[in-house]
Amino acid sequence: MADQAPAEWRDKILHATLTVGGTALSGGDVLPGQYERPQGFQLQLDLDDAGAAERIFTQLADGGRITVPLQQTFWAQRFGAVVDRFGIPWGINCGEREVE
Questions:
Q1: How is the beta sheet containing 43-47 ordered, strand by strand?
Q2: C-beta separation of 68 from 20 below 8 A
Q3: How far apart are CA 10 and CA 1, in angstroms?
Q4: What residues contact 61, with CB distance under 8 A and at least 6 apart?
Q5: Which fold has domain 2-96?
Q6: Mind giving me the DSSP string for 33-60?
Q7: What is the pLDDT of residues 1-39, one digit of tens each?
Q8: Are 52 and 59 in contact (CB under 8 A)?
Q9: pTM of the full predicted structure?
Q10: Which of 32, 27, 33 is nearest to 14 (CA)?
Q11: Percent of the chain beyond pLDDT 90?
C-alpha cells in the first residue's frame, strides 16, 4: 500500500507487532502533526535470562541513550535503563538476585 500513501508518509510505520513470550504488543506511527514526545513513563521488560537481558539492553541502546547501565543490583541479577533511538524509555530487569 506504500504507493497509496502520501510521499511524506513513506518512512512511517503503519503497523508493527512485537511478540514477547506469549504476549503481542502492537503499535505504529501517529498521523502527521499528531506526534508528541513520550514522557512520564517507562516500559519495563522482566526477563529470567541474564544473557537475554544483556542482548536486549544492547540492542535498545544502539542509537539510544543509557540512563542506568545494565548491572547486578541488590534486587536483580541485572537491571538497567535505556531510552531507545525512538525516545521510548525502557527498564530491563532480570530475575531475582541470589543471596549468598
A1: 43-47, 89-96, 76-83, 65-71
A2: no
A3: 10
A4: 82, 84
A5: 2,3-Dihydroxybiphenyl 1,2-Dioxygenase; domain 1 (3.10.180)
A6: T------S--EEEEES-HHHHHHHHHHH
A7: 667 777 877 777 778 898 888 889 898 878 777 888 888
A8: no
A9: 0.73
A10: 27
A11: 55
